[in-house]
Amino acid sequence: MKDESLRSLILRAKRGDSDALAEIVERFRPLIKKYTRQAAERDAHDLEQELVMRLIVLVRSYREELPYGFMELVEREWEKTRRRSK
């Protein structure tokens, strides 16, 4: 499963595959940690949970015909979330 493409995982997750969704979250875990490192310790856990929730929403609503990739969408949305949490 580690070699499965992100696109394939997203398609599976959109069809309700919880294992695929869990794999996506794990693949993004290092990036989530990077974003939360900048938050105050007491806020880091809340921000981490919010970013995971945003990721899940983005997976479920992502459309391939968008003019930008999934990774760009995630980073854009997370940056908005991080700014709001300051």
Q: How would you characterize the overall build of this protein?
A:
The termini are far apart. The chain is built from four helices and no strands. The model has no long low-confidence stretch (mean pLDDT 85). The protein is an all-alpha fold and 86 residues long. The chain has one domain (6-85): RNA polymerase sigma factor, region 2, helix turn helix motif (Rna Polymerase Sigma Factor, Chain: A), CATH 1.10.1740.10.
User: How widely separated are the two ends?
Assistant: 36 Å
Number of strands: 0
Q: Please state the second-level CATH architecture.
A: Orthogonal Bundle
CATH class (first level) name? Mainly Alpha
Mean pLDDT, nearest integer? Answer: 85
State the CATH superfamily name: RNA polymerase sigma factor, region 2, helix turn helix motif
Order of helices and strands: HHHH
Q: What is the count of DSSP helices, taking H or I runs of 4+ residues?
A: 4
Pfam families: HTH_16
Organism: Tumebacillus flagellatus
Protein name: Helix-turn-helix conjugative transposon-like domain-containing protein
GO molecular function: DNA-binding transcription factor activity
Structure described in brief:
With 86 residues, the chain is an all-alpha fold.
